[in-house]
């Protein structure tokens, strides 16, 4: 069976006029527009035991009469084993797992937040200091505006930039949130509202010719967990990109016959990158992967995300992608682990088809890039001078990091930074 599959192609797009096959557009936390990659295929591979469900998406534009697809199967498939899936379902998972930008805004260095003595004393005897708690909150996009005691209650006043970060912070503080809490919080976060939190002191085909074709899906049983790619190379004009989003019950999916490395992540870059995120990510990926390589872009338990690049998938969307083990009542906290692998290959590389294995590794990872916006208001205090000096140093470090990641020239980076930050930080 393995040798038979190796002679087939996963998804070769054929057409009389041979139009280009394009990648999905990527949308991130920053909502950067534009396509990141050309000549790419997107595959959702759901795997449990020896059952595979493969959903193949093409961003083909043109007359449907000019399109054909050759699909490998381990045997003759019955009609019940072949289906189509709404394009938006695959696009939703693509957005959910895509590399993302997160933004933080520096506070006024001249404003001192005073701690109430009651809670300051309690914090002194706890396992973590007040500063550690505030830093932990900030990492989730949450700011503890005030803390004080009223009678038998401990009060927190919070602000947040993202509903999932706020929900995660509250859970970390020991609160048990009801199902769907993230969705309920989202509208208030978007509206810029604050949050009063109290607890007793004891501790979420049409007929139009140019419309996108629906993804095709096949399901079958096979001991082999693999994707054939060899015949697909025949359509390629230069390097090809394959994005595999694998869904399992256990943990990460890994390649067993090729080395995989993690995309550079959790790095601070200049704020102007938000305006050129597709170009930034393309340049960084080109340098990380080279002409040929396999890169991990995302691996996460789908019961939560931080930050979320999109809303969680619904129960019906999981079902459409072949995730049959999640009950509707469990959809808010599904037992699904997603792995996003980005593989670049050419006719002169990756001579073996891709072989995978499901592991029990549930360590979370994401391609995440941080924007730190300097304070833009008036600075009059002595502490502000220290803040300005430290911020200048930080911006220089961000510029050096960006140059290292992308190979962009120092001159162009400096020019773009000068357009986006105040004079005092240059």
Could you give a quick summary of the protein structure above?
The chain has 426 residues and is α+β, with helices and mostly antiparallel strands. Helices cover 26% and strands 26% of the residues.
| Helix percentage | 25-40%
Measured between the Cα atoms of the first and last residue, the distance is 63 Å
* Beta-strand percentage range: 25-35%
Total strands: 20
Main pleated-sheet profile: 9 strands, mixed
Order of helices and strands: HEEEEEHEHHEEHHEEEEEEEHEHEEEEHH
Instruction: List segments where confidence is low: pLDDT < 50 over at least 5 consecutive residues.
Output: 1-38, 61-68, 116-127, 202-211
The DSSP helix count reads 10
Q: Helix- and strand-based class? A: alpha+beta
Which outline best applies? globular
Radius of gyration: 24 Å
Q: Indicate the mean pLDDT.
A: 76
Summarize the structure in words.
The protein has 426 residues and is an alpha+beta fold. It has a domain at 374-425. It is built from ten helices and 20 strands. Strand 7 and strand 8 form a beta hairpin. Helix 5 (163-172) packs across helix 6 and helix 9 (382-406) packs across helix 10.
